[in-house]
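[step 3/7] fold_predict: job queued, chain A
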Amino acid sequence: MTVSFVEPAIEQLLVERIVSVAEMASLAEEWNALAQDVPFLRHEWLETWWRHYGSPSQELFIIALRTADGELVGVAPWYRTTLLSRLRVVRQLGSGEVASDYVGLLAHPDHTDAVAREISRWLVEDGAGEWDLIDIDAVRADDPAFERLIAELRVCGHLVDRRLPYRTWKATLAATWDGYLATISKSRREQTRRFLRRSVDTGRAVVRCVEHEDELPQGWRILADLHQRRRVSLGDAGCFSSPRFVQFHTEVARRFLDLGRLRLRWLEIGGKPAAVEYGFTGGDTIYYYQSGIDPALAEESPGWISLATSLRSAIEDGYRFFDFLRGDEPYKASLGGQPVPLARIRIVGRSLLARTHYRAWLAGSRAKGLVKRGWQKLQTWRRSAEASHGKGEQN
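[step 4/7] structure written:
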């Protein structure tokens, strides 16, 4: 008996280039359905970013993919900028100082392979002459669509540099506050309970939340003020010293409030704003984007109290995860956060300019690495020498 095998049909998707804000806006509802509740992939975040951060030297470079019956199943949310060297670099919308995490391709789970394959095909064939370098920052390291895209482009002969320079920290929340406290260290658990008893439980500390549009201006002023006070006290300029950052977030906060996805809360101690939290909600997750405290009230531990009340309210509201986002501050791990690696991915085009630029960048990167490792060895040697010198004096 002869058994014949039929090759499964390869799904074909239709590619559409999006080059204007109006075209982008027409995709908003379908776009958000693919964002899987990640705020930094939503249309509101990325479209607002483009209007505030786009420049004349940049242009939208969005690739949208539809099935034969017209369903939007994939989006590459990119823009293109041309450097002085004439190198055409494709980057992610939302990049730069706003520090968007979990970026990447938007792909329907049932069409992930087809989306990655069709984007790869377009980049290699129809769009091959339109880019020299794709440079995407803060992609989740296990993003299936982007991993498949990388694999496809490598097969086609493209050079790919993939590194893991960042981590976010994501805590899994228990069903109850006591259950969550049981997951953190005994010292942190006792400290948290003590902070809440002496402040919130006595009524000395009160949490205020922005729930309506008329409350937003007050919450925004408190956020900007306390964040800047804290950063300046540490010798840093602070994010709110950037006009574009302020303009972008002023609009994003309003748009996410309208969606019911804004989380802007502040803690008052003795009637005075002492700490503030700014973030977003998405599905079963709280995204803790930014915070601030009044350095003059540091002895009251307002940051810890604010975080404890935020975590407790997240659990009471039924959220399953609390995402502290990017940055390796020790408090994130102490509150149950687990590291989630983020990748920076560079895909090199086939032009001579692209490959020359990449080789120069790679050489510079290696040189910096050697200098950094040399500096670290020197510091280790100095500490060892100082320690030995100290022992000699004691003897």
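[step 5/7] annotate
The radius of gyration is 24 Å.
Confidence is low (pLDDT under 50) at residues 1-8, 389-395.
exit 0
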